[in-house]
Write a structure and sequence with these properties.
Number of helices: 0
Oligomer: single chain
Bound molecules: zinc ion
Helix content: under 10%
Strand content: 15-25%
Order of helices and strands: EEEEEE
Strand order of the largest sheet: 1-2
Shape: elongated
Distance between the termini: 39 Å
Largest sheet: 2 strands, antiparallel
Length: about 90
């Protein structure tokens, strides 16, 4: 039997969140990610990381630059369509 059109598109891999997704169910809310990087603030001497002092908020040393989340595994603070490796680079 000749089936030119697949009933279900194969899952694709998102290059932003590294998750697999169904292209036919890809919406603006599908992909959660951080638009900025997780940063570790260096101490002034550049040899060690900034150490928290009393009164410093916990995100003063390590955090996502976009939203201030301190946990590297924190869920993304922004959502958008998943982007597969097949999509054109912007
Ligand atoms: Zn964020
Ligand atoms: Zn994604």
């Amino acid at each position: 039997m000749d089936s030119g059109v697949a009933a279900r598109a194969p899952e694709k891999l998102c290059r932003r969140c590294k998750g697999s997704f169904d292209p036919s169910a890809n919406t603006r809310l599908s992909c959660r990610f951080h638009p900025s990087f997780f940063v570790c603030r260096r101490h002034d001497d550049q040899k060690r990381y900034y150490e928290l002092r009393d009164g410093d908020p916990p995100y003063a040393a390590k955090f996502y630059d976009c939203c201030g989340a301190e946990d590297p595994d924190a869920p993304g603070c922004a959502t958008d369509f998943h982007r597969s490796y097949d999509d054109a680079q912007e």
